[in-house]
Amino acid sequence: MDFMPGDDFPTELRNLRQSFATIRQVSDPDGLRSRIAQLEATAALPGLWDQPDQAQTVTSQLSHAQSTLEKLTTMQRRIDDLAVLVELAEETDDATAWAEVASELAAIKPNLADMEIRTLMSGQYDPREAVVTIRSGAGGVDAADWAEMLLRMYLRWAERHGYATRVLDISYAEEAGIKSATFEVNAPYAYGRLSVEGGTHRLVRISPFDHQARRHTSFAAVEVIPQTEATDRIDIPEAEIKVDVFRASGPGGQSVNTTDSAVRLRHLPTGIVVSMQNEKSQLQNRAAALRVLQARLLVQRRAEEDAKKRELAGDIKASWGDQMRSYVFHPYQMVKDLRSEYEVSNPTAVLDGELDGLIDAGIRWQRSQDAPRP
């Protein structure tokens, strides 16, 4: 960001203060301090780690609350320091001082924008970790390859942010690519960020599988659901679940392809099917599949409740529609989100994990629409 002496830095500073005041009000530092004290007390209980899942939830929430409070404190200090720099630059009217102001202003703005995005994620399940499923759609072998490209894209995005991921299931296609994949993103607000990625993703390119080098269009569906927690109370009677076991397919460790360790759960009342094969044992795969099934039922229940509320209110809105984003490599190069109208001219970078611009634009669009969602 290049500023010259004489630019309106006081106005820039005033805008920063106003934006931060809104963020601070929404974030509620006093409430965060109280929450941190409660979580620290819980974390200090002697028998906490007797229940590892609950212990991990507590420590994750504590770490996130502490991180949020630290970001608020640091941003307040940086804005106050910037105000001092602006005063000094105005007094001296020195080019070096103005350059220092411009540099710090350029550094603060993206951090403040990221904090603002966090305040927009106010859905009930937004603070949770995410479970993402990708399925190939129309387009044959190109679609299977496209699904695998999307899997790599999201895993690279998570890696860029230092988010832990765990692939729960992959079903490989016969010629190339994958039929489907399910993975977890284990980070606070992973669901809040990735929920806007749900929908149908369209790829247009010269097919590497077409010997005539023709242009092909392929589709893949992305589903994002929040990770369930112990407080969700999703009880599924055994009589409502059909369990199938089978031999895992594709590359893997020593137990893959040698035992019937893969598990498929079918929820009979809804028809929801979940398959898991990447864990070492049948028991582990069943537990992972049950977690994902519970999460999908949780989302379905919340969607039904929202639909009833909208019907009672007499305001039933259409959904986004299936196709939410296009990735074009030929005859031009562009990624365009069809909801927010956000565009990127470098699809290669996007598929390498540079997704933040598209995700942030999706979150802003979603908030502007005030679209009910889980």
List the helices and strands and how they pair.
Blueprint: H1 9-27, H2 29-43, H3 52-92, H4 95-120, E1 130-136, H5 140-161, E2 164-172, E3 178-186, H6 190-194, E4 199-206, E5 215-226, E6 241-246, E7 262-267, E8 272-276, H7 282-313, E9 323-328, E10 334-337, E11 343-344, H8 347-351, H9 356-369
Parallel strand pairs: 4-9
Antiparallel strand pairs: 1-3, 1-5, 2-3, 4-5, 6-7, 7-8, 9-10, 10-11
Q: How does this model look, in words?
A:
- The chain is of the alpha+beta class.
- It has 3 domains: 9-120, Release factor (Methane Monooxygenase Hydroxylase, Chain G, domain 1); 130-227 and 322-369, Alpha-Beta Plaits; 238-313, Double Stranded RNA Binding Domain.
- Helix content is 48%, strand content 20%.
- It is built from 9 helices and 11 strands.
- It has helices at 9-27, 29-43, 52-92, 95-120, 140-161, 190-194, 282-313, 347-351, 356-369, and strands at residues 130-136, 164-172, 178-186, 199-206, 215-226, 241-246, 262-267, 272-276, 323-328, 334-337, 343-344.
- The strands form 2 sheets. An 8-stranded mixed sheet has the order 2-3-1-5-4-9-10-11, with helices on both faces.
- Helix 1 runs antiparallel to helix 3 (52-92), helix 2 (29-43) packs antiparallel against helix 3 and helix 3 (52-92) runs antiparallel to helix 4 (95-120).
- The radius of gyration is 24 Å and the shape is globular.
